[in-house]
Design a protein that fits this description.
The chain is α/β, with parallel strands linked by helices. The protein has five helices and four strands, in the order βαβαββααα. Helix 3 crosses helix 4. The N terminus is likely disordered.
Length: 173
Amino acid sequence: MTARRPSPATPQLVPPQPSPSAPVLDIVQADDRWARVADAHSCVKAAVAAAHAPQAAGSVCVALENDATVRQLNKRWRGKDQPTNVLSFAGPDPAILAPGVLRHLGDIVLAYETVMAQAQAENIPPAHHLMHLVVHGMLHLHGMDHHTEAAAEAMEARERSILAQLGVADPYA
């Protein structure tokens, strides 16, 4: 009996490798009300992909939470006993990781009630506000901040550019 060689069309099982242009993404929908936002998961995926810095291969977790959870996190990590729309928690410094270990860029946590109230108050689609906040969180994970006027202007300009690519109106107009 002769062994058959696999034809070129035979699929090879190769574990997926993270692409520098698309981070490994985990979406945790902890609050069921996020299902009310049209295509929330697709919005998160698009915003993460658009805001991702290609040179920063790694993973990201986006948690779709509620005000109570975000309030607890905000109090514990920022000393502010109130909910906020989005929190970003950067992952470990890549310099401390062993070679070949996939870097966790960090976590982005969103508060349902606050995000929906802001979208309603600003008269914008909740999906667009969600994408804006995910982009904002991703930029924080890539090291941007808004602690000074110059830094805030640079971050807002980058947000505007990314959101325009996603078809989202300028949130600062």
